Amino acid sequence: MIEPFHDINSTLWPRLNVLRRDYFRGRIADLGRCGLEPVLAFDDYPQEAFLKTCTVLAEKQGKQSDAAAASSQRQGTDSSVARSGALPVTDLTPPD
Q1: Are the C-beta atoms of residues 24 and 77 closer than 8 Å to each other?
Q2: What HEC string does the chain produce?
């Protein structure tokens, strides 16, 4: 999903813009209350200067993704293709 998450629009002017336009106001961590588990989050892509957005890849909680199920069948239940190489959800800056 691509939304103007509060985590990205936390400074004054971007936050006021989100409020004024009545856009989505949630945090990435709040997705768990909707039954979604964030897997990957990033904000380093071309976008409008007035509205900062963040892309979040999430999977439903309690349901194993197809990629994770295929990986667990091949390598055991402790590995997950969907999570390998993904940035931590709390770290939104790209690696150097």
Answers
A1: no
A2: CEECCCCCCCCHHHHHHHHHHCCCCCCHHHHHHHCEEEEEEECCCCCCCCCCCEEEEEEECCCCCHHHHHHHHHHCCCCCHHHCCCCCCCCCCCCC
Label residue 81 exposed, middle or buried (CB < 10 Å: 0-12, 13-18, 19+).
middle
Confirm if 7 and 92 have CB atoms less than 8 A apart: yes
pTM of the predicted model as reported, rounded to 2 decimal places: 0.58
**pLDDT tens digits for 21-40?**
998 889 999 999 989 999 99
- Residue 35 half-sphere exposure toward CB, CA atoms < 13 A: 4
- Tokens at residue 52, please? 């900062």
